[in-house]
Amino acid sequence: MTSAVKSGNRVAGEAARNANDPRLSVEQVSYAYAPNPQQAPVFTLEATSFQARAGEVVAVLGPNASGKSTLLEIISGALPPLSGRVLLNGFVTHQFEPRTRGQRIAMVQQESQLLFPSKAWEFVLQGRHPYGKSLRFESGEDVAIAQNALAQVGAEHLSDRWMDQISGGEKQRVILARALAQQPLLLLLDEPTLHLDIGAQVDLLETLRRLAAENRYTVVVVTHELNLAGEYADQVVLLQKGKALRVGSPASVYQRDLLEQVFQTQLTVETGASGRPRVSILPGS
Amino acid sequence: MRPLTLSRLLLQCLILAIILFCVMVLALKFGAIHVSLYGLGRNLLRVFLGKTSDISTEYSLILNLRLPRILLGAFVGAALSIAGTSFQALLRNPLADPYVLGVSSGAAVGAILALLAEPHLALTPEIAAVFTPLGGFLGATIAIAAVYFLGRRDGRIDSNTLLLGGVITASLLSALIVLLLTTLPTSNFRGMAYWLMGDLSSVPSQPLAWVLRVGFAVAAVVIYTTASDLNLLLSGEKEAMHLGVDVRRVRLIVYIAASALTGLAVSVSGAIGYVGLLIPHVMRMIYGSDHRILIPASAFGGAIAVVIADILARTIAAPSELPVGAITAIAGAPLFIYLLRRRFA
Amino acid sequence: MARDSRAIFVSYPVADKESGSFHRAFVNLSYRVPTLLRHFATVGILFCAMLAFGLQTNAEQANAPATRGSFRTVSDETGRTVRIPVPVRRVVSLAPSVTESIYALGLENLLVGDTDYCDYPEAATKIHKVGGATNPSLEEIAQLRPDVVLVIKSLNRLETVQQLERLGIATYSTDPHSLAEIRSSLRRLADVLGNPAAGGALDAELQQKEELLRQKLQAVQATRVLFVVWTEPLISVGKHTFIADALVHAGANSVVDSSQDWPQISLEEMVRLQPEFLVFANNHSESVVRDVEALAKRPGWDLLDSVKRRKFAVISDAVNRPAPRLFTAVEDLARQLHPEVFAESSVPAQPNPVPKGPN
Question: Is residue A129 part of a domain?
Fold first, then answer.
């Protein structure tokens, strides 16, 4: 079953759909919590919608506390929305069984809190957990998929290293490899570039774009790196204080007055060599 | 990349089982009555074949006194170690032991109350024999339920809240124990002191022994089915959830099963300390953190440790018997310090 | 799925990154593990489990109590029904007071085992020891094949009794709380051991002593005393203990009114109650003299009249054991508390070993 290594073909049933149908459909999701019974609930996210196809990279942008992480959690299905729903190939994400969710949606968070030291290959193999029976021993196929995942992020040389002995960027790659080992349809990343140097940041986004294209993932990345998003995303969702101000291609979203209003600072927007918008801060303003 | 396979798991278990077997045979040799290995083998065979009338009185005593005690020690060691491993994973805390959530204190209160009530109740001999362990188990169950409800947050078990709830309950119950021991008229101080330290001299009689065996088997198997999930839980709850672990269900199952194991062990032998805390760490150093092998390894390791401690307890101050808990504490404390320095130095 | 059917190279994962000599033996050990081993291992584990469980079941069945001779059923002092073989030839005592009683009854030929703490009379120290009173070795006891094991409720553990019962060894318990009960205990004990006459004789002797003493102390007002078990913290005896009863028979009255057996009491309360005498149970009276001198200098204690005026009595620690020697200790205490009553008696007064301070 070497074809299992290519994730897209595995969901043969669902692929019977028109390949151009949106795979991910976020429909009017909102979220609020009540700090205490007397006060009115606080809305962290207000009716937000967007759609994404297979192979697309979506960037969710916004200043701090704009509801980006909440939106990501809702998309992953871990957090049920107050209103609205998220559909993945027609199925509501927060109604997935845990194992099914593990096979469809992979989440990459910033840092992994490892209690006891483990090796990178062990870590990546965890991504195979949603498959097969609950208590089982990993098969040769699992091993092959895990190795391939490491190869795809360029981290095979880290396979036998201890997780707490590798650098931040390398750890990020291994965490990503684990997500790939899940062979998901949807790949979600929460501020993956936070602790990386600029070279590693570009590396990561390049990898994401490549993987999305090759393996037909839908990728949703939460970030506040405007230029990275502008360069690598097919779609941008701009949030401010829980409201989605604009959804669209980077060129359409990166309008100067809009960005200045959201980020509260003077900047200019130009078009770069690749045809993508580039944002610069105006000095001394 | 060489993940754990069934073959390797079974091989390790076999090696550990052989070591346990040798230790148990060694334990059978020590004691007041002189035992020869040949005589032991011959009489064991007779028992196994059912020719019980051919056994000499000496070996009959061995089989009725020493062997059940050794088996009890093995069972208690295994139960406490599995519980310790589970709690360390559940609470994501390497310092967790089976008693941190107050199960043993609850069992102690139950046992004390049973000991105090026993003279005033007209019990038949069969019930009287199991009254104290029963009280202990009842106390343990109440403590488990109380801590569970304390440890809930938004309807789910939260590690930190659980730990806090457990610690609070444990200290509350310990204070209650001290109060009971010093104020109530009939003081079975000595009995309770031995119980609190952990003592293997009260081998349970048959009906209770079966409850223990079945309870242990069920709880151990239930915990083992979550072994892969526990591996993932160690990376973090949110991540485990995204990797397909039903965190809520796993926590509940492990909490109940591990607490049940602790309650069973503590009800019959008191609170033997350090086993549940240290054996998982030692086994982790040898076998790694993969719970599919760590859980059975801890079980065997705990059994071996307690049987050895029991040998010492029976021989050091002969003919008096020391409580097993005293031996595990004396050996355990320095080992704990050594492990701490090794890990975090 | 291609799985375990092919040979797999295995090695042991090491979690601790510092590869010390401790687990070097395990690291880098790789060899082929065929599937056959898996089967052997499974069978082996199952077999061991079966063995362990099966053995225990069969072993307990092997414990059929030997039915040699006849039995009789008695009720012991804790209300338990005990089946004792007739005649009784071998006895193990698990309490020093019981050992003393057996010697006093003249039945020491039956004694085959006692505790490490059985030190009176001298001959008792030569008997085979089975361990402490609270933690005896069950194997030692069982090996002696006793007909009955004697315990007392206030010293021995219930667990010990239960385990002996499980082994089919008869266990008889006494539980006296007064001098009269000690005497009846001795009677019943002698009866259980098959020599009621000895019990009757000892009982009569002790009763006579008791009666004589009672007559002497008839007109005397009871001295208010504090029986000191321990000074830090201050521990005395409760009103339901035989020691409290012993005090009454010595013409004294414990000021401590507690239902606990060994109550811890506050010094303040004692200062309020001001007992006339302190009573110590110690075989070495000189050390008590020293202790009281030390107490006199302590704050709180120096408020007690009895300490200031050095009014204390020292008796043998036999008072702690519910055995015949207790009666002698009681008499000794009476002499110290009420010397005037004994000065007129025909029996010459025993020399009082305790130097009384000026009072």
Answer: no
Kind of pairing, strands A243-248 and A235-240? antiparallel
Beta pairing partners, C225 = C254, C277
The answer to whether A140 faces chain C, any CB pair under 8 Å, is: yes
Spatial distance between the Cα atoms of C147 and C193, rounded to a whole number of angstroms = 10
Is residue A270 domain-resident? yes
Q: How many domains does chain A have?
A: 1
Q: Is the bond leading into B319 cis (omega within 30 degrees of zero)?
A: yes
**CATH number of the CATH domain containing A40:** 3.40.50.300
pLDDT of C16 reads: 40
Asked if the C-beta of C26 comes within 8 angstroms of chain B's C-beta atoms, the answer is: yes
Token output for C47: 């077999």
Total structural domains within chain B: 1
- C62 and B63 in contact by Cβ < 8 A? yes
Walk me through the domains of chain C, giving residue ranges and CATH numbers: 70-209 (3.40.50.1980), 219-343 (3.40.50.1980)
The CA-based dihedral angle spanning residues C9, C15, C18, C19, taken in that order and rounded to the nearest 10 degrees:
-30
Among A133, A139, A143, A161, pick the best mutation site for testing chain C contact (most C Cβ within 10 A). A139
pLDDT tens-digit readout, C303-347? 888 988 999 999 998 999 999 999 999 999 999 999 888 875 555
Domain limits for position B253: 9-36+55-344
Closest Cα in chain C, distance from residue B214 (Å) = 11
Q: Spell out the long-range contacts of B165-171 with Cβ–Cβ below 8 A and sequence spacing 24 or more.
A: B165/B101, B166/B100, B166/B101, B166/B102, B167/B100, B167/B102, B168/B102, B169/B101, B169/B102, B169/B105, B169/B106, B169/B143, B170/B99, B170/B100, B170/B101, B170/B102, B170/B104, B170/B105, B171/B105
Q: What is the DSSP string of B57-106?
A: HHHHHIIIIIHHHHHHHHHHHHHHHHHHHHHHHHTT-TT--TTTTSHHHH
Tell me chain B's radius of gyration from C-alpha atoms: 21
Q: Is residue B98 part of a domain?
A: yes
Per-residue pLDDT of chain A (285 residues; tens, 9 = 90+): 344 444 443 444 444 455 567 889 999 999 988 777 788 888 888 888 999 999 999 999 988 888 898 999 999 998 899 999 999 998 999 899 889 999 999 999 876 677 788 889 999 999 999 997 777 888 889 999 999 999 999 999 999 998 888 888 888 899 999 999 999 999 999 999 887 888 889 989 999 999 999 999 999 999 988 999 999 999 999 999 888 999 999 999 999 999 988 888 888 898 988 889 999 988 765
Place of tokens 């599919």: B292
User: Is residue B48 assigned to a domain?
Assistant: no
Q: Is residue B2 part of a domain?
A: no
Place of tokens 């009072």: C359
Which residue segment(s) compose the domain that A234 sits in? Answer: 2-117+184-200+209-281
Out of C142, C158, C165, name the one closest to residue B65 (CB).
C142
- The whole-angstrom separation of Cα A194 and Cα B171 is 43
Quote the ipTM score. Answer: 0.83
User: What is the value of pTM for the model shown?
Assistant: 0.81
Which tokens is C243 given?
């020691």
User: B235: which chain A residues are within 8 Å (Cβ-Cβ)?
Assistant: 112-114, 123, 126
pLDDT tens across C162-176, in order?
Answer: 889 888 899 999 999
Q: Give how far A130 is from chain C: nearest CA, Å.
A: 17
What does the CA dihedral C169, C170, C174, C180 come to, rounded to 10 degrees? -150
**Residue A192 and residue A200: Cα distance in Å, rounded?**
10
Residue C16 near chain A (CB below 8 Å): yes
Are A152 and A177 in contact by the 8 Å Cβ rule? The answer is yes
Q: Write the pLDDT tens digit of every residue in C66-79.
A: 556 788 999 998 88
- Domain membership of residue A256 (yes or no) is yes
| CATH, residue B91 | 1.10.3470.10
Query: Is residue C21 scored above 60 in pLDDT?
Result: no
Q: Is residue A126 part of a domain?
A: no
